[in-house]
Write a structure and sequence with these properties.
The complex is a heterodimer of chains A (1161) and B (87). Chain A is 64% helix and 0% strand. Chain A has 1161 residues and is an all-alpha fold. Chain A has a domain of 156 residues. In chain A, a hairpin with a 3-residue loop joins strand 1 and strand 2. In chain B, 66% of the residues lie in helices and 0% in strands. Chain B contains four helices and no strands. Classes of the chains: A mainly alpha (1161), B mainly alpha (87). Chain B: This is Splicing factor subunit.
Chain lengths: 1161, 87
């Protein structure tokens, strides 16, 4: 070890100094929110990719209900025509911008080239640069002067403080996660109406804006040049220490007398802020004020107001949380107002806001009632005001999953109520909801689909098409993508045939390839979403897109191939005749294409081949194989995956012969894919294994295993694992009979090698070992000594994982070792495992016990070494272990011993185990409870039920409900295994105890007894009748409920066994309980009545129900009809003979005679 | 929990019942109920060939004819619905 003079190693460790220092600094910094990082994870926008966040760039059309206005004869404005014009304009804009960028890029490149060619730039250029520099310097100086003077100029405190537009309100927020980071990560914004404040807001602030709030979200502050200077620490106007004092504050500071507020001199105008994008912030009387802009929160935070975020809003009550961002949307309801001065519309708006806030931020009960209210009043509120409030909330960047879910739910409910009133808002809703369709979260996608399909049903196909048509050839790919998905949802909601003519037209669009591309993509999405439901329309769908395979645009061709692949996948295994049209272009296509296009074409072929007849499949496979083999060498990951998939699909078809696979595919396949590199990528790994297993189905075990078995000794562990997994799967499906002696030696050798060499104890290796050895059966006999010595060695390893794995392997091999007749080895393993029972790691201990159990199972209790009488006492204390795996393994072992070898263990030991087992009856895992209950049965059988039963009956007196319930179950098990006659008298006797718990326990035990013994209960019906009479007439509800359950099980058990008289008696006792209202009781009673239908026949039950079907009291009628209905549903046909003869009720033209029943020969 | 059950268990049962033809409710009229009974009786006879042949013999008609007539009869087995009293 260390030399003597070196300092002694300290045996306690603390964190390094710099780490502690860092934490201390962090703590000192103000406003450090340790959860900030996780909070941003919750935010959808922060988590998603740039592509997803492109949704913030979308512009919603101003909606009109075209149909309605046409009906009314009004001029349609801003409708479809305008939308299309707008779309064209945007496209043109994007095109021009691209052209400009292109030109600039070219010029830059040329310039660069010039620079490269000519080391010294020409004098003219130098001069230019110098002049530019001078100008910039001058400008900067001027700005500085201006800024400095601006600071020095005294500001009069009686003048309203002008908001300084130049201060970047985001500045103080820099360190936080919210705004800046998001804005930075989001792609550059295109100017859209989302971003800019509309003009009239600037001019007339006081007016109520005519436009909806929809249009005025978040004015964007284009950062002016002076920003940096103005943000210098000294001039931070918005900082709470530096802001100007307000009138109130000055009033408070200055004495009230002796000072006069001077009126401003005539002609004085307060300095006008240079830009007026943001409305001037009016200083609010009352301290707390939130501006209606997305930066309000930042400003509030800067002013030191952030901590005062409200948790209780007037008229809303307590909220679960309140985010600073919420303030801007709910500003109007945050402050107290005089409601009498508000107009009806304003009141409505406030009401909606309150409900939304409750739904979004409230606790579950609050949310529930608010949701119900908003749904009920949806039509009253109207579509406009509702969506004006909901949709901006959904576009908030800091939205979290839960909030989104709730808001989407609101839309869903509201849509349902509003029906065609939503028409003007369809596009706005789509803009917000479409992004959900490409969300990573499955549930978000489902929600989005549901909303769009409801929307389609409410607005109608024509309106949906005219709303979404402009987006189909939108310049932005994101918009086209989401629109295609939305269209597929519409198709599934309104039926494919309705959409087909439109799709045909779009896919043939001459104007733009984007439209064709989107049309094909719609078809693809329809196929993906609707699955085999496309079959009836398969031909027309394929017909729609077929010509896309020969489109002039590469992208359209690729997308068409993908769509055909999706259609074929959805249609499998039917519908090959619909693809006739595309076969030729596809097969020609794979010769012409390269790269991405080829991948798509191959994919389509891969999905079409399995649909074909065997002979065609074989022909086409041969055609495509040439290309596939060429592409085996591709370096493109995507292509690799597709090639593997296609190979798998081809190999799986009937027409492809083993011979062909062996000769033409396997050599190249193994050369290109069975290389170490493939094991490194998870997806490649899986795909290669799957494909190889599929090939093995045709080529046989020996062929495949023989090729890869040597790789089991490869030096790369992931690769060995990949080999092992493949061998496992192949052998598991096809067996090992194909493997000859030489291969067998190599295989076993390789498996033992790779098992021993593994560094991470893996399930794959374990499964592989188990599967191969079990498949080989007695053929492993020669290797067993070696295998067992490996296991023994590993059982004593110092790593718990290794020991556990060795034990698990023993469990798997026990049967084979027994088959090979190596009992010697088994008893050796058993002894070693027995010695290991002191294991401290619960996982390992569980495996060891399971292994011991497996050995005991194959060897039998008599031959077991260690003998059972030693093993069991060792297990008793282990039963107290709380670990589930240990519990399960030990209870299984004990149960097996109790079942097969109970006589080897003294009765005292069994009683001790009984007490321990009572605890296991309330385990969380069902398997453990079941094993424990079964063990009770075995133990009771071997000991005789008396002792066990008395333990259990005494246990009914304990306080804890859980263990009482478990005891009742155990009693029932004892009754089942030892015969009901052993238990029922004891239970009936116990029922006479005065204690309520015990009586309920007895009843409960009887329910289980009769449930388990089934038809045997016919013998015991009469003996329990008196007790049931007592229980069914008890005042206590639970008694009657449990007794009804007993009656149910009795009736079901002895139906058709001649106990009708007793059953009728019990029926009379149960029947009056049908008016109970407590849910559990009425449930039990209805069940009992239903069971009586079987025991007594439906006729008897019908005569009971006839009494009350037309009773004058509705309450009675309702109950009787419910019983009648379940009777009718259970036995409609057999009721026919029992219907009463109602001929005397006939009146006028209604004859109620059932004539056919009155005929006789 | 109990309130939850009250809202689910029984109401659900009733919803479930209401899905099937032939089930009833507290406001069912005599005419509707008996009509269901008649239809069930006719269906039952048609569904049990021995019964059908028995009726065919009694009527002196072919089985197909009897079955056809019964099917026709199912439309309004008890005549047209009684006029609703305006209340």
């Amino acid at each position: 070890m260390s030399p003597t003079n070196s300092p002694r190693l300290v045996d306690s460790f603390t964190a390094p100094k710099e780490v502690l220092q860092e934490f201390a600094e962090l703590a000192e910094e103000d406003n450090v929110d340790p959860f900030a990082e996780t909070a941003s994870k919750r935010q959808i926008a922060a988590r998603q990719s740039d592509y997803h966040n492109r949704r913030f760039n979308r512009v919603a059309q101003d909606g009109v209900d075209v149909f309605k206005q046409v009906d009314e004869g009004a001029e349609v404005e801003g409708g479809y025509k305008d939308a299309m014009r707008l779309a064209r304009l945007e496209q043109e804009e994007a095109r021009v911008r691209r052209a400009i960028e292109e030109k600039e890029r070219k010029e830059r490149e040329e310039g660069k080239m010039k620079m490269d060619l000519d080391k010294t730039p020409p004098a003219a250029e130098l001069q230019d640069v110098a002049m530019e520099l001078a100008a910039a310097k001058e400008l900067a100086e001027a700005r500085e002067r201006e800024a400095a003077s601006g600071v020095k100029r005294k500001r009069r405190w009686d003048v309203t403080e002008p908001t300084d537009e130049n201060v970047d309100p985001n500045k103080p927020d820099q360190g936080e996660w919210s705004k800046d980071a998001l804005e930075a990560s989001a792609p550059k914004k295109r100017r859209s109406r989302w971003d800019a404040t509309p003009a009239e807001n600037i001019t007339a602030v006081g007016e109520t804006p005519k436009r909806s709030r929809w249009d005025q979200v978040a004015p964007v502050h284009e950062a002016p040049m002076t920003q940096i200077i103005m943000n210098a620490p000294g001039i931070m106007h918005d900082d709470k220490h530096n802001r100007y004092l307000t009138d109130e504050e000055l009033d408070a500071i200055l004495p009230s007398s002796g000072y006069v507020i001077v009126t401003p001199p005539p002609g004085y105008a307060p300095m006008v802020a240079p830009r007026k994008l943001m409305p001037p912030s009016v200083t609010e009387v009352g301290g707390f004020h939130i501006q209606e802009s997305s930066d309000a929160a930042a400003i509030a935070a800067a002013a030191g107001l952030a901590p005062e975020l409200p948790t209780e809003i007037p008229g809303v009550g307590n909220l679960a949380f309140f985010k600073p961002e919420d303030a801007q949307y709910f500003a109007k309801i945050l402050k107290e107002e005089d409601e009498t001065q508000l107009s009806v519309d304003e009141m409505k708006e406030r009401k909606i806001m309150r409900l939304l806030l409750k739904i979004k931020n409230g606790t579950p009960p609050v949310r529930k009632t608010a949701l119900r209210q908003i749904t009920d009043k949806a039509r009253e509120f109207g579509a406009g005001p509702l969506f004006d409030k909901i949709l901006p909330l959904l576009m908030e960047r800091t939205l979290e999953d839960q909030e989104r879910h709730l808001l989407v739910k609101v839309i869903d409910r509201v849509l349902y109520k509003l029906d065609d009133l939503v028409r003007p808002y369809v596009h706005k809703i789509l803009v917000v909801i479409e992004p959900l369709l490409i969300d990573e979260d499955y549930y978000a996608r489902v929600e989005g689909r549901e909303i769009i399909s409801n929307l389609a049903k409410a607005a109608g196909l024509a309106h949906m098409i005219s709303t979404m048509r402009p987006d189909i050839d939108h310049a932005d790919e994101y918009v086209r993508n989401t629109t295609a998905r939305a269209f597929s949802v519409v198709a599934s909601a309104l039926g494919i045939p309705a959409l087909l003519p439109f799709l045909k037209a779009v896919c043939r669009s001459k104007k733009s390839w984007q439209a064709r591309h989107t049309g094909v993509r719609i078809v693809q999405q329809i196929a993906i979403m609707m699955g085999c439901a496309v079959l009836p329309h398969l031909r027309s769908l394929v017909g729609c897109i077929a010509h896309g395979l020969t489109d002039e645009q590469q992208k359209v061709r690729t997308m068409t191939a993908l769509a055909i692949a999706a259609l074929a996948e959805a249609a499998a295994p039917y519908g090959i005749e619909s693809f006739d049209e595309v076969l030729r272009p596809l097969w020609l296509g794979i010769r012409q294409h390269r790269g991405k296009g080829l991948a798509a074409f191959l994919k389509a072929i891969g999905f079409i081949i399995p649909l074909m007849d065997p002979e065609y499949a074989s022909y086409y496979t041969k055609e495509v194989t040439v290309i596939l083999i060429r592409e085996f060498q591709t370096s493109d990951e995507e292509m690799k995956k597709i090639v593997l998939k296609v190979v798998k699909q081809c190999a799986a078809t009937e027409g492809v012969t083993a011979q062909y696979i062996k000769q033409d595919i396997l050599p190249d396949f193994f050369k290109s894919f069975w290389v170490r590199r493939m094991a490194l990528d998870r997806r490649n790994y899986r795909q290669v294994v799957e494909t190889t297993v599929e090939l093995a189905q045709k080529a046989g075990v020996a062929e495949i295993v023989g090729r890869i078995v040597n790789e089991l000794k490869d030096e790369a562990e992931p690769y060995r694992k990949m080999v092992m997994e493949t061998i496992t799967k192949v052998v598991a499906t096809l067996g090992a009979s194909d493997i000859d002696e030489r291969l067998e030696v190599r295989l076993v050798d390789g498996i033992i090698y790779s098992f021993q060499e593994q560094t991470t104890e893996d399930q794959v290796m374990l499964d592989g070992f188990g599967t191969v050895v079990n498949a080989l059966g007695i053929r492993v006999k020669p290797y067993l000594t070696q295998i067992v010595s490996t296991i023994l060695w590993r059982l004593n390893n110092k790593s718990a994982k290794v020991r556990q794995q060795a034990a698990d392997l023993t469990t798997r091999l026990a049967i084979v070792i027994k088959q090979c007749g190596e009992d010697q080895l088994l008893s050796k393993l058993g002894l070693v495992l027995f010695e290991q029972l002191g294991e401290e790691y619960p996982d390992t201990l569980g495996s060891i016990i399971a292994a011991e159990g497996a050995i005991a199972n194959v060897v039998g209790m008599t031959q077991m070494n260690p003998p059972v009488k030693d093993l069991l006492p060792r297990m008793t204390p282990i039963l107290r272990n709380r670990h589930e795996k240990v519990q399960e393994a030990s209870i299984n072992l004990i149960g097996r011993i109790a079942d097969r070898g109970a006589e080897f263990v003294p009765a005292r030991e069994w009683m001790r185990i009984c007490f321990e087992l009572l605890d296991l009856l309330k385990a969380h895992k069902k398997a453990i409870r079941r094993a424990a209950v079964n063990s009770f049965g075995y133990i009771a059988k071997s000991l005789g039920p008396q002792d066990v039963l008395s333990v259990l009956l005494t246990n009914l007196r304990v306080q804890e409900r859980q263990s009482r319930v478990c005891s009742t179950v155990a009693i029932a098990i004892v009754a089942e295994t030892c015969g009901p006659f052993t238990c029922i008298p004891a239970i009936l006797n116990e029922y006479r105890t005065a204690e309520l718990n015990v009586r309920t326990g007895c009843l409960k035990a009887l329910t289980f007894v009769f449930e388990y013994v089934g038809p045997q209960s016919a013998y015991y019906v009469d003996s329990v009748v008196t007790m049931l009479e007592d229980a069914l007439t008890d005042r206590d509800l639970v008694h009657r409920q449990t007794a009804s359950v007993i009656v149910k099980h009795l009736a079901l058990g002895c139906a058709g066994l001649g106990c009708e008289d007793t059953m009728l008696h019990l029926m009379n006792l149960v029947w009056p309980n049908c008016f109970e209202t407590s849910p559990h009781v009425i449930g039990a009673v209805m069940d009992a009545v239903e069971a009586m239908r079987l025991a007594l026949g439906p006729g008897v039950l019908l005569s009971y129900t006839l009494q009350g079907l037309f009773h004058p009291a509705r309450k009675v009628r309702e109950v009787y009809w419910r019983i009648y209905n379940s009777l009718y549903l259970g036995a409609a046909d057999s009721l026919v003979p029992f219907y009463p003869d109602l001929s005397e009720l006939s009146e006028g033209q209604n004859v109620y005679d059932r004539h056919p029943l009155q005929m006789f020969v | 929990m109990s309130s939850e059950l009250r809202y689910t268990a029984n109401t659900q049962l009733e919803h479930l019942h209401a899905r099937y033809t032939g089930t009833g409710h507290a406001d069912l009229t005599k005419y509707e109920w008996i009509t269901h009974q008649h239809r069930d009786s006719l269906a039952s006879i048609m569904g049990h060939p021995p019964l059908l042949s028995y009726l065919a013999i009694a009527d002196g008609e072919a089985m197909g004819r009897v079955r056809f007539e019964m099917t026709e009869r199912m439309l309004q087995p008890c005549g047209p619905p009684p006029r609703k009293d305006d209340d």
